[in-house]
Design goal:
Helix content is about 35%, strand content about 25%. The chain has 13 helices and 18 strands. Helix 9 links the parallel strand 14 and strand 15. The radius of gyration is 28 Å and the shape is elongated. The mean pLDDT is about 95.
């Protein structure tokens, strides 16, 4: 409901009742903590406030009481209502995930001052009482309508999934990483930040004079860092490849050079890092409000992949997802529609990939498609369209039909939905960390953690 209508004082009748139903979400608890300044761990979703060994996620009583104000301010009397007083008796508890019903019933009116008196309650949806009390309000004197579509929305930008990745990577030995051309403040800072978190042990390959100058200008400490002076970007990338071939590095990290210059020696048939599988780029996204990591591929390397390339893209994504702790990744192959249409080639590829996974030509995950974006990530949308299966509405990996679609999807999530994005290239003999100049420190750390977790799982952590 986006439009609220009020009931002015002279139209209020004793016995009138209104209610609001609200599911208490974990994000509600974070919003309340920041808005009120009350960070009692009993009321934070992942904290153990009573030290019983499990998170509590209790809903703060005052937050629950605020639901009463929603009834009074939205419905009865509605827009234009002022609070005078509210008594509260807290008779129960609620937790994240509970459905709450706030109700107000008019019990008395007083013409002087347009006062209205309400019996107020909040209960669980099964009738268990949580709050009882009485409210006194000044009712509006004229009819009013208010459209809330003009009110800005609110997103809780919590990136708990990346925090979990960093925790998973923390016990691992620092991954020896060849960092190619870290010759700008962002690329050098990202490598040193990952070093300080003991995720990587960097070998800085590039123009030594430039690297030192950037470090000096930005207060970056290069103590204990190995620097290999190779001014040419192409030669620096080739040197990184040689280090991997010689088992002196377990990963490569992109600095300030063109992606083509980085990949050219990696994909060399003579002495590169090819494995027989096409390399592909994977965005690993921590989207606020989403209960799991979301991976999008390919968004940076394969422009218009054919079916066999998409097979490798899917397999690379599944392999990485398993390294990140997803036992059986759910892969949604995207198209504009969820039905096979010969006029839309991506639907044919999606159907083929789904069948290939069933026949064991793609392993380790569950693959389904074609799926439109809505029914790939929304159970409600999938249910509405009658789409069933283990992937519909709960995809953890999204396979884009082409690079343009994948890139736009990932960047929309990053810049509109406030997701943090890590970037890794898979399919070579080692993971390749591919950062963007606009990436945050969190993204750079997460990219290194993703690479380290995969290198550790395949036994290539140097």
């Amino acid at each position: 409901m986006t439009i609220f209508n009020n009931i002015p004082f002279d139209k209020l009748e004793i016995g009138m009742t209104a209610e609001e139903t609200r599911v208490c979400e974990k994000d509600d608890l974070y919003v309340f903590a920041h808005a009120s300044g009350n960070f009692n761990p009993l009321f934070l979703p992942e904290e153990d406030g009573d030290f019983d060994g499990k998170p509590d996620a209790y809903a703060p009583s005052i937050w629950i009481a605020s639901l009463i104000s929603a009834v009074l301010g939205n419905k009865l009397p509605g827009p234009g209502t002022f609070y005078n007083a509210q008594s509260l008796r807290f008779v129960g508890r609620a937790q994240a995930g509970d459905t709450l019903v706030a109700r107000a019933t008019l019990v008395r009116k007083q013409a002087e001052g347009r006062l209205a008196f309400f019996e107020t309650t909040v209960c669980l949806d099964n009738g268990t009482p949580i709050i009882e009390g009485e409210a006194e309000v000044v009712a509006p004197d004229t009819e009013q309508t208010f459209d809330i579509t003009s009110v800005p929305g609110l997103t809780v930008a919590s990136h708990q999934h990346f925090e979990r990745l960093l925790e998973m990577a923390a016990p691992l030995p620092a991954m020896r990483t060849a960092v190619v051309a870290p010759e700008t403040s962002d690329s050098l800072r990202g490598a040193i930040l990952a070093k300080d978190h003991t995720i990587i042990d960097p070998i800085l390959i590039g123009c030594e004079q430039t690297i030192h100058a950037v470090a000096s200008e930005n207060g970056i400490d290069l103590t204990d860092c190995v620097i290999v002076d190779v001014p040419s970007h192409v030669d620096a990338a080739r040197h990184a490849v040689n280090l991997v071939n010689e088992n002196k590095a377990a990963a490569i990290m992109k600095g300030h050079l063109h992606t083509d210059d980085l990949l050219r020696p990696i994909l060399s048939s003579k002495d590169g890092l090819k494995t027989g599988r096409r390399v592909s780029h994977i965005f690993v996204l921590d989207v606020p409000g989403l209960k799991h990591l979301l991976m999008v591929s390919d968004a940076a390397i394969n422009i218009t992949p054919d079916l066999q390339t998409k097979v490798d893209i899917v397999q690379n994504s599944i392999d990485l997802a398993i390294s990140l702790g997803i036992d059986t990744p759910k892969v949604g192959v995207l198209s504009a529609v969820e039905t096979v249409n010969p006029k839309i080639p991506s639907t044919l590829d999606a159907a083929a990939l789904s069948k290939m996974a069933e026949r064991g030509q793609i392993t380790g995950g569950i693959v389904d498609g074609p799926l439109a974006m809505d029914n790939a990530v929304s159970l409600a949308a999938a249910k509405t369209k009658g789409i069933t299966g283990l992937v519909a509405g709960q995809a953890e990996v999204l396979i884009a039909p082409n690079l343009e679609a994948g890139n736009m999807l990932a960047k929309e999530l990053a810049f509109i939905a406030k997701a943090e994005a890590a970037g890794v290239v898979m399919g070579a003999r080692c993971p390749i960390v591919l950062n963007s100049r606009s990436d945050s420190d969190t993204s750079r750390l997460a990219s290194c953690a993703v690479a380290a977790l995969h290198a550790a799982r395949i036994g290539k952590l140097v």
